[in-house]
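1st attempt posting a full record on here, be nice pls
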Amino acid sequence: MAIQNASDLLVYKITTPAQAQVTRIKVKSSTPLKDFTSGESIILNNVTDADGDITDGGSATVWLSYSANTGTNLLNAIKTELQGTDFGYTGSAVGTDGVWKYIDFTNGANGPVPTLEVVDGTAEFKAGAVVIDVLTSGQSEVYQPIAYSTSASLSMSTDLRDITTKDSQGWQDNAKGLSSFEMSTDALWDVNNAVGVESAINDLDEGAAVDVKFSDRVRNLVATEEVYGEGWNSDVLTVTKHLEDPFGQYTAAKFEIASPTSHKYVSYQVPIQLVEGKKPTVSLYLKGVSGTTGASVNVFKMVGGSAYFTNPVCKKISGAGTIGNDSGGAFPITGLSNTEWTKIEISQSQPISGTDLRYISINLYPGSDKSSQTTADKIITASWQVETGTTATDYQNPTEVDCYQGKALVNSVSVDAGTEDNATYSASFTGTSELFINGLGPELLSNTYLDGAEVVDGTTRTIDGWTMYRAASNCASNFENPGGHLEWNSSANTYFYPAIAMVTGKEYELTYTVSVLSNANTKIFIENETLDIPLTIGTHIIRFINGSGSGNLTFNNVGASGSVTFSHISLKEVFS
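the predicted structure (as tokens):
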């Protein structure tokens, strides 16, 4: 681990459990549509898939039959669309509330997602005939620092089993036995924190296993390195993922305006528990696209409605471009480079405070005028960071913070009265499970270097935990000792997949190395997720939440003829 000293350590606790967003759609029971005729439609906007991601297009058309001009029939038509594989919602039975019919829809993933919207299509709603309420706001699991370490220790041990035999030639022979770990910490506890000292006593008293982390200080409050997925909202209609970021990984994305519009954006929401009472600083990287060299950015603190940062300051840290004065609630940025990254910072002078605080939202708009966006407006962005210091520091990849994590029982807790608003806290923990390194579970794949043999035409074959298929003689699906090779033409496909069933709703980290690529336009996608993965020579790391498909991690070709060779593939579960 890269931990230097105990003062860099924090004690973390889950303060907010993860939960899916629940949205109630209410429609007037009787004739909610005007002059309805058979074959007309209504439109669903901002629908999300089972991972909480915005789907391409951001909307869906719901076609209605002749008998659909009742609240029940409209709701059932909407339910059919939202419960499809594209969106992954689940819906309740139709309920009655006075003159209304309603269905409660639950998103397929934990975390905040854009609110559903039902609007006119070729069919037109009567005034006030449809109402949408968020019953439960989506929330990602939140780990909050609650104590600041003055000392900390972690010890791991493995028992040895005696396997000495007469063939050991007089020497004792041992094999690995049971492993265990213990943690202890002395810390200064902020008694004004949202998590009181009594919560540690409760953990001890209840005797339930708790999650413990032993890690470097986490400066970046953005939970993902990718600028899409859980926690991200996109009101921009076209998104291109897995572009190269400033640090050589593939976590950046391009956001484009599909048609003339206004106030379309990509945003990230930071739970208020992490920033309330502090002066958060936001930083992010930007790059222009072709003829577009502008963008706009602002930060909200979300209450019952929304409010801008107090006296925000936006400045350029590095790269090309000019930042204008705050205009219309956003800072315009012009003159971005199409080849080099620009890093900007937004800060404010006063701590986040107010009533009914929910989160802060960082919003990025393609084009320097968010009130008048055109199809030429595009922006590439990467490596967002939110921290509680007053100035931006070097980017910290939140997925690469060194840590050990596992389940443990609380052995002892000691709390001494402190001065001012602090108490001295000591605790020790005994592990009850495997200790996971950097939040990742054990390797799930056998044969990660893809050793094996070729597959005959038109058949499937299983080799050392992998199943391979190729459709024709001019295709290939084979392991090359080492390395997995796929080759195909435009009329036939080929694929391979490991004998591992991923769990729906779990997050996974996929690491793979491309050693040979014959066609720059070649694409591979994870079949269960229908996600393109970047194919360039080198090692790539991506994270994704497994959807509701078959559970297989299938590498399958997309598009024109091509070939690719993977020299190594690794899959591990990500633990919060």
